């Protein structure tokens, strides 16, 4: 099996794992925490079941279809880049796996529920009043290492072939 095939298998495995995990947790929240109610986990973390009918940070409420359409396009472009790219590093397959898996979960939420199920509510942080979900965390798990690696470390891609 070539390095490209191995990396694509890793990518699709991460995408499916993140998608399944995020969907299962969202399903659990939807069936166990009433909409617009809060469970206090501790003084910092609460589970507050809300619905996001818009985009990131609740922007453009009622226009979720637009964010879904944009997301499908971006996720398709990322997958094409990984599939067709000549010098793609392994860390890109891994990081994009988390990003695409999280993005796909939010798209699936929009298709199933008509909105994204958000529930992770971090409180007592100045100027922070956002509620997010597992898929959003997975997107960040992919984005931040990719940015840091891209800025700080430029791997020799010829050694990964």
Quickly count the domains.
1
Q: What gross morphology would you assign?
A: globular
Please, what is the average pLDDT? 87
Query: Widest sheet: strand order?
Result: 1-2-3-4
Secondary structural class: alpha+beta
C-alpha end-to-end distance = 12 Å
Unreliable segments of 5+ consecutive residues: none
Please estimate the helix content. 55-70%
Strand content: 5-15%
Q: Tell me about the largest β-sheet.
A: 4 strands, antiparallel
Number of strand segments: 4
Assembly annotation:
single chain
Order of helices and strands: HEEHHEEH
Discrete helix count: 4
Q: Provide the gyration radius in Å.
A: 17 Å
Topology:
Elements: H1 3-32, E1 38-40, E2 45-52, H2 64-84, H3 90-113, E3 116-122, E4 131-132, H4 134-152
Antiparallel strand pairs: 1-2, 2-3, 3-4
Helix pairs in contact: 1-3, 2-3, 3-4
Structure in words:
The protein is an alpha+beta fold. It has one domain. It contains four helices and four strands, in the order αββααββα. A four-stranded antiparallel beta sheet has the order 1-2-3-4. Helix 1 packs parallel to helix 3 (90-113), helix 2 packs antiparallel against helix 3 (90-113) and helix 3 runs antiparallel to helix 4 (134-152). The chain is globular. The model has no long low-confidence stretch (mean pLDDT 87).
Any descriptors?
4-stranded antiparallel beta sheet, globular, 4 helices, 161 residues, alpha+beta
């Amino acid at each position: 099996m070539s390095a490209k095939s191995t990396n694509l298998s890793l990518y699709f495995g991460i995408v499916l794992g993140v998608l399944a995990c995020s969907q299962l947790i969202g399903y659990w929240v939807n069936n166990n925490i009433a909409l617009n109610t809060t469970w206090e986990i501790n003084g910092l973390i609460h589970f507050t079941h809300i619905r996001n009918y818009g985009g990131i940070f609740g922007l453009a409420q009622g226009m979720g279809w637009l964010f879904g359409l944009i997301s499908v396009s971006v996720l398709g472009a990322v997958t094409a880049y990984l599939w067709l790219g000549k010098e793609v590093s392994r860390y890109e397959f891994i990081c994009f796996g988390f990003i695409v898996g999280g993005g796909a979960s939010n798209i699936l939420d929009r298709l199933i529920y008509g909105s994204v199920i958000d529930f992770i509510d971090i409180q007592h942080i100045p100027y922070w009043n956002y509620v997010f979900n597992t898929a959003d965390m997975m997107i960040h798990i992919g984005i931040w290492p990719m940015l840091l690696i891209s800025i700080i470390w430029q791997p020799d891609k010829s050694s990964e072939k």
